[in-house]
Amino acid sequence: MTLHPAVRAVTERIRERSAPHRNAYLQRLDAAAARDRGADRMGCANVAHAFAGIPADDRFKVVAERAPNIAIVNSYNDMLSAHQPLGRYPDLIKDEARKLGATAQVAGGVPAMCDGVTQGTAGMELSLFSRDVIAMSTAVSLSHDVFDAALMLGICDKIVPGLLIGALHFGHLPTVFVPAGPMPSGLSNNEKAKVREKAAQGLVGREALLEAEQAAYHAPGTCTFYGTANSNQMLLEAMGLHVPGTAFVNPGNELREELTREAVRTVLGITKTRRFAPIGQVVDERAIVNAMSALLATGGSTNHLIHWVAVARSAGLVIDWDDFAQLSAAVPLLARVYPNGSADVNQFQSAGGPGFIIRELLDAGLMHGDVLTVREEGIRAYTKEPALAGKLGWADIGPSRDTTIVRPASEPFSATGGLKLLTGNLGRSVIKVSAVPEDRHVVEAPARVFNSQDELLRAFNGGELERDMVCVVRWQGPQANGMPELHKLTPPLAVLQGKGFKVALVTDGRMSGASGKVPAAIHVSPEAAAGGPLAKVRDGDLVRLDAPAGTLQVLVPDAEWAARENASMPGTLKDTNGFGVGRELFASFRRNALAAEEGACTWL
């Protein structure tokens, strides 16, 4: 299939823009790959320390027999339902490695926080920065430098991007990502959302709300909505970094275990003595574009307009929101998964899942087919689904098994992707339109300005917001307070919208990957704390959010707007942001964070 002109144009623009950075990155990669093995290169004391803790037979293999040694970087904890199954993976991986004449070591663990737990609390202000902590922890884990390959064990929001960023800084290593799969379906996401809206109105109490939440989040595995965690898994499939079809197989069954063992076999198949495909070569501009297309075709999380910018930078590639916008105009929406529809990810998987989407995009010329992956068969391997029939195998998916959930590229839900770039005198921002009713794609109303999400919630509870309005929530960017998700605002704003009011949110913060019902211009850059125009907005200013036109404007005369001074962040807010739940340890992160469109990176 001929490559779509928009895909070709975006890819070429990224390649040209990135050339000096990418060339320097590949030179470093080649230099690292050309060295002798760690156990041969290091001093005897270094080697003895590296392998003192492993069984004697494994020690003999890796040192005397020069067997491949796999690094396991694990984000296991049992605070995250998605990561709880990972506690059993290292023993399984080591067992499979021994069968194949190799060894494996847990090189290190990385922190993994649950945004579902911290949502709406002070702890959420560490969430975005935890991505870079995870990247650094991955680097520390791999810095022992005695590994021939690596397996990255992780699933959720900041964890996969952090692992990927860290792994790309060791781009000479063959690397495979290993997920654990989603929990079985519980209370539907739509029903859960209805209970939340009732609770916001005071129509049900805490007991009923807690019962609903626990019925939705009820078992080990990833949450079942198509938020950031599950978008991560879709993007890794599209980049060829998984064992094909691994993303949405539930934990705890034979197929899940066999796919994890296959990850060991896969990574050992791409070491130097066989087909050398280190992660730094797999993740090139074509792989990044493939991930972007998959994100847009599935209406995935807006968080990836930050995370994948940072991922690309780690591979010497420079992307921006214009790239996403140009692709979004060409890539059709092929999936309806909550919050873009009523289906959960288990139903998405049953309808055809990632393999169906990737096949449709490849056949329509909306993904690159000539890419390197962790599998010798290439990206087409990711258009099939795994099954166990005596042994592990893959089968064609065939047509959509439910056209209310996934559709072919010839009959999409929408001719364009799920994300839009907004520009105007309030800066640059993004909106996820795929989950917003079409009659809400344009909102023009007076501004109501808030300095925190708590201020908005107090105003809602006080009955002050029963009117058309654009809620401007500022001082929520990376430099101000770490750019928390503002998902707690979705139920009250949805209640107001349900009453017939025209309501929108404009913020330099983030929204959860599960949000979308209310039109929200998010990631506004430059942020208010960096002198951005959100700091000029006053109560009563007329604001127009126009998704079809791609604009975000405050309708104030140009001369008046230019002369207006920026408000300052309230001193009490600065004090609040700086202390408590460890926030003081992240002061340097806030000082050094780049803008959202630059990936909010703290290490550049």
UniProtKB/TrEMBL annotation:
Give the reactions, separated by semicolons, that this protein catalyses.
6-phospho-D-gluconate = 2-dehydro-3-deoxy-6-phospho-D-gluconate + H2O
Q: What is its EC number?
A: 4.2.1.12
Annotated residues for binding of [4Fe-4S] cluster: C156, C223
Any binding details for the cofactor? Answer: Binds 1 [4Fe-4S] cluster.
List keywords of the entry alphabetically. 4Fe-4S, Carbohydrate metabolism, Gluconate utilization, Iron, Iron-sulfur, Lyase, Metal-binding
- What region holds the Dihydroxy-acid/6-phosphogluconate dehydratase N-terminal domain? 68-379
Listed under GO biological process in this entry are: D-gluconate metabolic process; Entner-Doudoroff pathway through 6-phosphogluconate
Q: Name one GO cellular component term.
A: cytosol
One GO molecular-function annotation for this sequence?
Answer: 4 iron, 4 sulfur cluster binding
Per UniProt, residues of the Dihydroxy-acid/6-phosphogluconate dehydratase C-terminal domain are 405-600
The cofactors required by this protein are: [4Fe-4S] cluster
Pathway this chain belongs to: Carbohydrate metabolism; Entner-Doudoroff pathway
**From which domain of life does this come?**
Bacteria
Please name the InterPro entries in this protein's record.
Answer: 6-phosphgluc_deHydtase, Dihydro-acid_dehy_C, DiOHA_6PGluconate_deHydtase_CS, ILV_EDD_C, ILV_EDD_N, IlvD/EDD_N
**HAMAP family in alphabetical order:** Edd
Report the NCBIfam families cross-referenced here: edd
According to its UniProt entry, the function of this protein is described as: Catalyzes the dehydration of 6-phospho-D-gluconate to 2-dehydro-3-deoxy-6-phospho-D-gluconate.
Protein name as catalogued: Phosphogluconate dehydratase
Its lineage reads: Bacteria, Pseudomonadati, Pseudomonadota, Betaproteobacteria, Burkholderiales
Q: Which gene encodes it?
A: edd
